[in-house]
Amino acid sequence: MLDNQTREQIIALINREVVPAVGCTEPMCVSLCVARATEVLGFRPEKITALLSANILKNAMGVGIPGTGMIGLPIAIALGALVGKSEYQLEVIKDLTPETLEEGKQYIANDHIDIQLKRGITEKLYVEIRCEAEGHEATAIIAHDHTNFVYVERDGEAILDNRQPSGSEKANNDIRLNMRLVYDFATTTPVPEIEFILKTRDYNIRAAEESKKGNYGHCLGKTIDRPMSHGIFGNSIFSHIISKTALACDARMGGAMIPVMSNSGSGNQGICATNPVAVYAEENENTEEELIRALTLSHLTAIYIKQNLGKLSALCGCVVASIGSSCGITYLMGGDYCRICNSVKNMIANITGMICDGAKPSCALKISSGVSTALLSALLSIEGKCVSSVEGIIDDDVDRSIRNLTSIGADAMNKTDEMVLEIMTHKGC
Question: What is the pTM (predicted TM-score) of this model?
Answer without folding.
Answer: 0.90
